[in-house]
Structures are given as structure tokens and as C-alpha cells.
Amino acid sequence: MVAPSRWPDSAWHVRNTLVYCTLACHLDKSIDYSPLHPHQNRSVDRLSGDMNGQCNQSVWTRPLTQSCFSLSQSQFADPKDNVFYRYIVPWIGKGLLTLHGPKWFQHRKLLTPGFHYGVLKPYVSLITKSTQVMLDKWEHLITQEKSVELFGHVSLMTLDSILKCAFSHESNCQIDRSNSYIKSVCEITYQINYRIWYLPYQIDFIYWLSRDGRRFQKACEIVHLQTDKVIKERKKSLKDEQELEKIQKKRHLDFLDILLCAKDEKGDGLSDEDIRAEVDTFMFGGHDTTASGISWTLYCLAMYPEHQQKCREEIRELLGDQETIQWDDLGKMPYTTMCIKESIRIFPPVPFVARQLSKPITFHDGRYLPEGTLVGINIYLIHRDPSLWKDPEVFDPMRFSPENSSQRHSHAFVPFSAGARNCIGQQFAMIEMKVAIALSLLRFEFSPNPAKIPRKIPQVVLRPHSLQEQPGTPFENLK
Ligand code: HEM
User: Fold this and answer.
1) What does the alpha-carbon distance between residue 227 and residue 233 come to, in Å, rounded to a whole number?
2) Binding residue per annotation — 300?
3) Signal sequence span per UniProt (predicted)?
4) DSSP symbol at 113
5) Which residues pair with 368 in a beta bridge?
6) Is 347 in the pocket of ligand 1 (CB under 6 A)?
7) Contact assessment for residue 293 and residue 303, using Cβ atoms and an 8 Å cutoff
């Protein structure tokens, strides 16, 4: 294997991106393919091979688990790869997701308190309200249509929630999508996913000259202007009010308050640019992922009505006639939680992550990877690995009972990644998924539409297929 001597050039990106896209677009095929590989059951499988003898930096990992997540255990962890992540940088800039080195470490330390349970607790009622708006819409839609495509609605609901939690913004986006900020976020999300999917757009100059590239750029400008405006206004009001406790008496603390007040030991806070990057990062990381998790969980429950009914009984017993849910209830729905976990095992919202090695690593069998190697960690494959999961294709929530979980490898279930660069928003995500699933089951019974069995589309997140076929962004196609 050859380590690149310098940061890869654009030709390198094109080759590697093609390799990644091919693998990414055939998640299921890569499962069929891996047993044929001569190195099966070893720590690392090289699936990308040699393209003209030049592209041997990409490594696709299989049972691996411990070895590869330990890549990110070191204090500063390895940087993200510059293939997929570069598509989102024009939007989110250099925030937690894309930073590396000491600056990432500083941001992670400053932002961790923003996910403390005391901050997250008031979000339950905000998420509940957003969920209820979505359910009211469904109530209306099922009187008009035989079947309702859920993913787009769930995406708008999670966008609505993250806007409230990130900067207390009441967007009303589930009902009124004429707001230019919402339209732009939807456009950006769609464009990023489309760009990954559409191979000619891997080449920068083709993309930036295209109509889509220009639309993407315009949408980023609108979003940045709006984020800057909100930050400026909030900074002003925080100055007047002086302290967080005073705000907290009036309303919940949102992520923006936390970001503006975050200070390290030397008393240094984040710059305006850093704050904007983090707000946009939460917007990006915090809505498509949970929309995927909620949608696939509803799909699994629709496919397995016996589990759906068990969850519904659990929630009815817990909430009685209430239509709202409280923080304390979230810890009292073990079966529903196991169903959510089993669903995101089978359909992990983030199907793969990637890193560029900052130093060589040696595996237990003596093979090593040099510095600069691009490592793709296929979470989807890990979650379906028969050496880790008995009958991996079977939906069995009891895998997540305390007894069964304790016997499993610690890195067999990694929907939120692992190590130092694991998902900072995982508690938030679990809260949102539990609230949305619980309230949905109280109001509706779900069954699959046999004419529209969803196909898995691994883009930035693992999306259900059906909306992809229609022209326009998924949000434009919603009724
Ligand atoms: C079901 C929902 C979610 C899933 C499956 C998920 C999964 C992940 C994964 C796999 C990573 C590692 C990415 C990588 O290595 O490149 C990650 C990182 C991250 N996630 Fe999430 N995520 C979810 C929800 C959220 C939410 C709700 C937020 C914010 C409110 C969030 C914010 C982030 C951030 C900021 C990072 C970067 C952390 C760092 O590198 O220090 N995520 N997430």
C-alpha cells in the first residue's frame, strides 16, 4: 500500500469518490460480495482494489470493529476523509463534524455541556409540539389518500424541532414552506444528497457551473445570512441580559445560548464564524439523521405488527389518555426503545463514516495501514455481520434486552459511531425518536404499502427510496 505523499489532488478525489459511490450505492451487494473476498474474517477487507495500480488508499473495513474505532480514540482522533465531507463544508463550514486536531478538541469540550440532560429536558415539550403538528397533518391526509408517504413529513418535523431547539426559531415550516430560510435548508439538503448520487457532480467545476451548483450556492448564501442575523441579534440580547440564568427563567436555553456563552479555561469563547459553523452543523447533523431513524422505525413496526402492538400497549399503559409525553416517561418504555434500536441496527441512519489516517496503524495479524490511508467504516455491514449478530436480517428487538446486550461486542452496535468522534447529539436523537414514535403509535396504526416497498438509498443518511423518483426536492412533492 502506498501512502499519498501530500494532500490528494482532484484526480485522486474523483477516483476515490467513484469507488466510494459504487460501494455506497450497493450496500446490499457489498454484503454479498464480501464473503467472496479472500481476506474474509480478517480485520480489514480491501474491497476497493487497485484502480490502474494507483488507487490503493481506500480501505473498506468489515468485522474490524475495535481496531477501526480505536482510530478515533486518541485525544484528537483522525481527521475525516476529504471525499464525502467536502460536499457539506460550503454549508456547515468548519464545525465539530468537519474539524480535526486541537480546534476540534476545543469545540467538543465547549459544546459537550450543551447536551447535558438539564439542557435537553425542556426540548421534550418542543419536540412533542412539532410531532403533534405532523400527526394532525397525517390525520387530514389519510382522509384523502389511501397511503401516505411519510419520510418527507418526518423530515419537516425534525427540521421544525431542531430549529426550535437550536435557536428558538418558530418556523412553522411543517405548514408554511414559503419561508426562504426553510426553503434553502431543504434545497441544500436535497442538493448535497443529489450531488453524492449523481456521478458527474463529483467533479467540482462541472458542479459549480451547473444549475444545481448555482442553486446550492444561492441557498447557502441565504442560510448564512439568516444564521448571521440570528447570531447578531442574540448576541445583543445576551449582552443586555448578562447571564444565562436570567434567560432560563424566561425560556429554555437553546444551543445558540450555549454556543455564545461557551468559554474555555482561559476565558476564550468561539468566534462568530465558529458559532455559525456549529449552528449550521447542528442543523445538518440534527434533522436528516433523526428523520431517517424515525421513518425506518415506523417502517419496521409496519412490517411487524406484533411488535407494533406491543409498543402501543406499553405506551398506552404509560401515558393513559394523555397526548403528550414527559421527560420521565422516556425511560419507562423499554420495549419501544428496543424496537428503535433494532430498527437503526437494520437501517442505520448514517450507514458509513470515513477517516484519513494521520498515522500508520498495525492490526493484530501484522498487516498495517500507512498514514494517509482512507478508511471507510461500514456501519451498515457491521450491523449485519453474521459473526456478530445471529440471523442478522431478522427483526428481533430482544437482541437489545440488558442480558443479550451485555454479551455482545462493545462495537457491534455503532449507529452513533464510537470513540472520541462519536455523535455528540445521540441523547437528543434518542429523545426525538422516542417522542415521535410513541406519539405516532398512540394515534395511528401503520401498515406497509406493498406497491411501494422502500429501497435503501445510502446518501449522507440512509433514506427510503420512493421520494427519490419524483422530480423536484422531496419537500416540494409533499402535499
Ligand atoms: C439518529 C440520529 C443520529 C445518528 C444515527 C447520528 C450518527 C452520527 C455518526 C455516525 C456520527 C459520526 C460521524 C463521522 O464520524 O463522520 C455523528 C457525529 C455527529 N453528530 Fe450525529 N447522529 C444523529 C443525530 C444527531 C443530532 C440530533 C445532532 C445534533 C443535534 C448530531 C450532531 C452530530 C455532530 C455535531 C457530530 C460530530 C461530532 C464530532 O465529530 O465531534 N447528530 N453522528
Assistant:
1) 10
2) no
3) none
4) G
5) 362
6) no
7) no
